[in-house]
Amino acid sequence: MLDLLMKRRSIRKYKNREIEKEVLDKILQGVLTSPSSKNRRPWELIVVNNRENLIKLGDSRGPASAPIKNAPLAIVVAADSQNSEIWIEDSSIIATVIQIMAESLGLGSCWIQVRERLTPQNQSVEDYVKNILNIPEKYNIECMISLGYPDEEKSPHNNETLPYDKVHYNEFNTAK
After folding, report:
1. 110 found inside a domain
2. Rounded to whole angstroms, how far apart are CA atoms 49 and 61?
3. I need a surface site. Which of 30, 49, 83, 158 has the fewest CB within 10 A?
4. Complete edge-to-edge strand list for the sheet that includes strand 43-48
């Protein structure tokens, strides 16, 4: 697991290659085991592989969402905020598991934040995405994850550059 986490980086360029159904099925099987508060599972996952919708989603935040445009697939993480007061945390957990599952299967991914973000035209990205994907009003959207076979290489994390100074024992140490 540590090797996987050290290797995982945000990938923004993807090969023109579809993700096989068996690979997607494994990702979904893994992510549906994600923990959630009181096992309420407030999240809903919208798997998008329609090229037209991927391009529209890729336009939602300008350059920040562009990785979706050349990805063969994206997963939108939405949640029923009435089901759980900590839907943001539960959605963030499942989104992270999507990225780790993707990495474990040789795919790259990139988290595109939706909640509290605006389109280049100053519209709510959440409303923009809901409109494209016909998501009911009662759902909130945390993020979109672009997925695909990487078409760029990034160096793995280096143990020497990890921010160990961010770790505190027993109390917050302000004397650094």
Report:
1. yes
2. 19
3. 158
4. 43-48, 73-80, 139-148, 108-113
Q: How many domains does the chain have?
A: 1
Does 166 fall in a domain? no
69 neighbors 58 (Cβ within 8 angstroms): yes
The CATH number of whichever domain residue 36 belongs to comes to: 3.40.109.10
Other C-beta atoms within 10 Å of 98: how many? 24
> Residue 77: which H helix or E strand, with range?
strand 73-80
- Burial per residue of 125-140, b for 16 or more beta-carbon CB atoms within 10 angstroms, e otherwise: bbebbbebbebeeebb
Over the stretch 108-153, which tens digit does the pLDDT of each residue have? 999 999 999 999 999 999 999 999 999 999 999 999 999 999 999 9
- Residue 167 domain-assigned (yes or no): no
